[in-house]
TrEMBL record:
<dbReference type="GO" id="GO:0045732">
    <property type="term" value="P:positive regulation of protein catabolic process"/>
</dbReference>
<dbReference type="InterPro" id="IPR036770">
    <property type="entry name" value="Ankyrin_rpt-contain_sf"/>
</dbReference>
<feature type="repeat" description="ANK">
    <location>
        <begin position="83"/>
        <end position="115"/>
    </location>
</feature>
<keyword id="KW-0040">ANK repeat</keyword>
<feature type="repeat" description="ANK">
    <location>
        <begin position="146"/>
        <end position="174"/>
    </location>
</feature>
<comment type="similarity">
    <text>Belongs to the ankyrin SOCS box (ASB) family.</text>
</comment>
<dbReference type="Pfam" id="PF00023">
    <property type="entry name" value="Ank"/>
</dbReference>
<feature type="repeat" description="ANK">
    <location>
        <begin position="50"/>
        <end position="82"/>
    </location>
</feature>
<dbReference type="Pfam" id="PF12796">
    <property type="entry name" value="Ank_2"/>
</dbReference>
<dbReference type="GO" id="GO:0016567">
    <property type="term" value="P:protein ubiquitination"/>
</dbReference>
<dbReference type="InterPro" id="IPR051573">
    <property type="entry name" value="Ankyrin-SOCS_box_domain"/>
</dbReference>
<protein>
    <recommendedName>
        <fullName>Ankyrin repeat protein</fullName>
    </recommendedName>
</protein>
<dbReference type="Pfam" id="PF13637">
    <property type="entry name" value="Ank_4"/>
</dbReference>
<keyword id="KW-0677">Repeat</keyword>
<feature type="repeat" description="ANK">
    <location>
        <begin position="183"/>
        <end position="205"/>
    </location>
</feature>
<feature type="repeat" description="ANK">
    <location>
        <begin position="117"/>
        <end position="149"/>
    </location>
</feature>
<feature type="repeat" description="ANK">
    <location>
        <begin position="17"/>
        <end position="49"/>
    </location>
</feature>
């Protein structure tokens, strides 16, 4: 049918901002149709609505065979849409490991961030917990603290395996970011706020649990405010150790707050 339409003068390349046949066929994973359109001279880099190219929609869908064809015909591997999203960012966000590998083989920029909110391929993969994609990106030179912090994104969403991987590669565990109009939120603060116990357990092995965050409060304050008792139990001893070391006047206040709970196992044993 497509061949017949082309023989009767069907337009291969729709006007700008319209969806071209190549984009539709690519998204639908019609390999034979895509090959036919390319052989007949379809513009492999034509963009449609919101500046989206055939390679970009294929990367979102994870259609590796179609993407291979497009790249062989000269698709721009680093073409970004109107939101600054590249094919590699799109594939990383949705966890398409084979697509990520293919794009990197064709020299996709592993550290290219989008223009809307400065998020990198590693950032979106970390945010969505795609550990296999994170591993591939790191093996291909992704920078740990490029754009919005990948570690922060993984901690916020409780992705333990990704957090562990990023920490093993030297991610800055105390890096504060600007979020919700406040500067100073750390990975530990956001993990404590969300109640991600295992993430908090990983972070306190390497970070300063007593660091002030978010208007002068600590991570344990954030956890207590949000009702995450398990996180409070995990963090409370670190606060007590600091107060004991400093002989702080806040020690009595702290002990009274936690004496009637099981939050702090050391409070009843230290005088």
């Amino acid at each position: 049918m497509v061949s017949l339409l082309l023989e009767h003068g069907a337009d291969l390349n729709r006007p700008p901002k319209a969806v071209a046949p190549l984009q539709l066929a690519s998204y639908a994973n019609r390999v034979r149709v895509v090959r036919l359109l390319l052989e007949r001279g379809a513009n492999v880099n034509q963009t449609g609505a919101e500046g989206i190219s055939a390679l970009n929609v294929t990367s979102v869908a994870g259609h590796v065979d179609v993407a291979t064809l497009l790249l062989e015909y000269g698709a721009n591997v680093n073409e970004r849409d109107e939101y600054g999203v590249s094919p590699l960012i799109a594939a990383s966000k949705d966890g398409h490991v084979r697509m990520v590998r293919l794009l990197l083989e064709y020299q996709a920029d592993v550290n290219q961030t989008n223009t809307r909110d400065d998020v990198s391929p590693l950032g979106v993969a970390s945010q969505n917990g795609h550990a296999a994609v994170v591993k591939v990106l790191l093996e291909n030179g992704a920078r740990i603290d490029n754009g919005k912090s990948p570690l922060y994104a993984a901690c916020e969403n409780g992705h333990v395996s990704v957090v562990r991987m990023l920490l093993s590669r030297g991610a800055n565990v105390d890096l504060p970011i600007y979020t919700h109009g406040i500067y100073g939120a750390t990975p530990l603060a956001v993990a404590s706020s969300a109640g991600h116990v295992e993430v908090v357990r990983l972070l306190i092995q390497t970070c300063d649990a007593n660091r002030l965050v978010l208007d002068g409060v600590t991570a344990v304050d954030v956890a207590r405010e949000h009702g995450h008792a398990a996180v409070v139990r995990l963090l409370a001893p670190t606060i007590l150790d600091k107060l004991l070391a400093q002989r702080s006047d806040d020690l009595l206040v702290f002990r009274e707050e936690y004496r009637t709970t099981k939050n702090c196992p050391r409070c009843s044993r230290r005088g």
